Amino acid sequence: MPDVLGNGFIDLRSDTVTHPSPAMRKAMFEAELGDDVFGDDPTVNALQERAAQLLGKEAALFVASGSMANLVSQLAHLGRGQETIAGASTHIVDDEQAGHAVVVGTSIRQMRENPDGTFDLDGPDGLGEAFRDPADPHEPITGLVAIENTHAHSMGQPLTLAYTEAVAGIAHAHGVPLHVDGARFFNASVALGLTPAQLAEPADSVAFCLSKGLACPIGSMVVGSRDFIHRAWRGRKLVGGGMRQVGVLAAAGLVALSDGPGGMIARLAEDHATARRLAEGLAVMDGVESAGGLAQPTPGPLDPARATTNFVVFRVSRDRVAFLEALKSRGVLMVAYNHGTVRAVTHYGVTPADIERVLAACAGALRETTTETTTETTTMER
To answer: Sheet harboring 205-209: ordered strands across?
Structure first.
C-alpha cells in the first residue's frame, strides 16, 4: 500500500500525515451543510453529539486544531491572571507559543514529570503542594490542572484511569477542574482496554484530535459540561474559530468515530502493533540507542516495551541529520524530535509489510552514516 504522500514514501513523521479514508471522502462529498456559527450545520451538530456521547459528557464542540482545543478550554476554565498546573514537557507548555499567556492571560506552574508521563501527587514536589494560596496577594490563583494523555515526550505512554482519578480527586478537593489534553486520547483508551467514557469520566473537560490517528483531514473536539462548552464556544469565536459550512469536514469525523467498518478507533490497535514491531526491530540494530529523558530514562538499548501506543522514539549514534537524509533516500520519512532523538509514528495506511521495509531502510542508513552526532531545532505539530 503506498504511503499517504502517494509517491512511494512511507511517512512516519507524524500521524497527522494521514489522508481521509474512502468512506470519509464519500461522506464529505455528500455532507448535509448549514452555517455552524448560527448553529444550524446538521453534520457538525451530529458530530458534536457523537463525541459527547462517546466520552460520556453533556456536550462537545468542533474546533480547527488541537492547539485551538486547548486554548478554548483554557479560556472556558480560567480567568485572566489565574494559573494552570501542568507537566513541564506537555504540549500546552512547550508547543503552543505560550498561548496560555498571550491569549488567555494566565501562567503555568510546571511539574517535573516521571518516565511514565505522570507527575508526583504527594510529597514536597507533588501536585498537592503545587496549588497557590489564594489568601496571599503575591501569588496567582490556581484555576486548572491539565494532563496530557497519551503523553508524547515519554514515548506516547498512556496515563491510567487510576492516575487520572487521583489527579482529579486532588484538583477537585481544591475546587479546581481537570482538563485532559487528549490529542491521542483514543490511543490511550485502546492501549488501556478502556472505553473512552471510562477514561474520560474523572475529567471536567477533554480535548482530542480527529486529524491524528483517527485520520481525518482537519479538526479536534472539546467535550465537557454544557456550561463549559458554551464558554468554549464563545472562546472559539474570539480566536477566529467560527466556521461556516464546516460540515464538509465534520462528516469525516462522524465516520472516524462510528462503530461501523469505517470507524477509526478500534483499528488504533494495529498502529500500536506496528509501532511495537518497529521498536523491536530497531532495538537489535547497532547504532540505535535509548532515547534518554522521559522517552527512556535508563541509558542503553532501546526498550521495545515502551512502545505501548504509536510512538517510537530513539537515538542514533550517528549524525542524526545524515541518518534522516539516508532514510529519505530509501523512501522512509522520520522526524528529528526533542533532545537529539528521532521519532517515528505509526498510523492509518502503515502496514506490517511497510514496517519491514522501514527496518531495512534503517539498517542501511545506519551503515551509511557517520558516528558524529548533531542536535538541531525540531518542529512539533498539533
So the answer is: 59-63, 220-224, 205-209, 178-181, 142-148, 83-87, 107-111
